[in-house]
């Protein structure tokens, strides 16, 4: 079974801090994704990566950056956290396949910015 | 990506069959229809995926008409543990990865 692990279930940070959210997958997947989930808005894609050191902007990349130095790890970075970045953050991974392999999600990090 | 429209909520009772219909009028030739399930405090979990006609697995069935502008997720004999949010999505493959656009989902409540 695919395992996507997010380093923290709950995190509280202060405005202006640099915040790192870590995600590790154990299935040797090429593709990794970061979403945020907010009530009434569903899940929105922030960034994704289809290979080591590669990244692509999703629908809402502003205020975020990512790092993919190793295949199994994909980090989301909030350069200067703001209160509107309080949210549930979900990481996912998938294998590259033309027949649309499903994404496997972690259980999320609930981030509060005070 | 094609926008999807599905009911905000549905109610059912244990043992009943539940059908959740999703519309995706602007679906493109390369798009697949995918359904995910999400429990509180967990990430979404893949249920089923299809391109056309009917797909069945151990959890659910997916019915897709010929024009592919809608799809129906069918859950046979639901139990209390099927209470969750169900997301209908279209997924487009781009040279080895697919991007997903989640809508607001359907909150299914199963009662005893």
Please, could you describe this protein's structure?
The complex is a heterodimer of chains A (114) and B (112). By secondary structure, chain A is mainly β. Chain A has a single domain, classed as Immunoglobulin-like (Sandwich), CATH 2.60.40. Chain A has strands spanning 4-6, 10-13, 19-25, 31-38, 42-49, 56-57, 64-70, 73-78, 87-94, 104-105, 109-113. Chain A is globular and about 40 Å long. The mean pLDDT of chain A is 92. By secondary structure, chain B is mainly beta. Chain B has one domain: Sandwich (Immunoglobulin-like), CATH 2.60.40. Helices cover 0% and strands 54% of the residues of chain B. Chain B is built from no helices and 10 strands. In chain B, strands 1, 3, 4, 8, 9 and 10 form a 6-stranded mixed beta sheet that branches. The interface between A and B is medium-sized, with 31 and 22 residues.
What is this entry, summarized?
Chain A has 114 residues and is an all-beta fold. Chain A is built from no helices and 11 strands.
Q: State the total count of DSSP E strands of chain A.
A: 11
**Main sheet of chain A?**
7 strands, mixed
CATH architecture of chain B: Sandwich
Helix proportion of chain A: under 10%
Which CATH architecture of chain A? Answer: Sandwich
- Tell me the number of structural domains of chain A: 1
Task: Assign a percent range to the helix content of chain B.
Answer: under 10%
Number of helices of chain B: 0
Number of beta-strand segments of chain B: 10
Broad CATH class of chain A: Mainly Beta
Please write the string of helix (H) and strand (E) elements of chain B: EEEEEEEEEE
User: Which fold does the CATH topology of chain A refer to?
Assistant: Immunoglobulin-like
The average pLDDT score of chain B comes to 90
CATH superfamily of chain A: Immunoglobulins
CATH superfamily of chain B: Immunoglobulins
Quickly give the structural class of chain A: mainly beta
Strand content of chain A: over 45%
CATH class of chain B: Mainly Beta
Beta-strand level of the residues of chain B, as a percent range? over 45%
């Amino acid at each position: 079974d695919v395992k996507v692990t997010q380093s923290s279930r709950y995190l509280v940070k202060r405005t202006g801090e640099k915040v790192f959210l870590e995600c590790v997958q154990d299935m040797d997947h090429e593709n990794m994704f970061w979403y945020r989930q907010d009530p009434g808005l569903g899940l929105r894609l922030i960034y994704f990566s289809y290979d080591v050191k590669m990244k692509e902007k999703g629908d809402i990349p502003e205020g975020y950056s990512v790092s993919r130095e190793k295949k199994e790890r994909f980090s989301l970075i909030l350069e200067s956290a703001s209160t509107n970045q309080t949210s549930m953050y979900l990481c996912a991974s998938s294998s590259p396949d033309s027949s649309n392999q499903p994404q496997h999600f972690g259980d999320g990090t609930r981030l509060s910015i005070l | 990506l094609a926008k999807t429209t599905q009911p905000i909520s549905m109610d059912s009772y244990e043992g009943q069959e539940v059908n959740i219909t999703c519309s995706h009028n602007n679906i493109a030739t390369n798009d697949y229809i995918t359904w995910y399930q999400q429990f509180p405090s967990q990430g979404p979990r893949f249920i089923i995926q299809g391109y056309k006609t009917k797909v069945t697995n151990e959890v659910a069935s997916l019915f897709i008409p010929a024009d592919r502008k809608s799809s129906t997720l069918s859950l046979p004999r639901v139990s209390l543990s099927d209470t969750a949010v169900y997301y209908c999505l279209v997924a487009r493959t781009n040279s080895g990865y697919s991007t997903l656009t989640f809508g607001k989902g359907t909150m299914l409540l199963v009662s005893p």
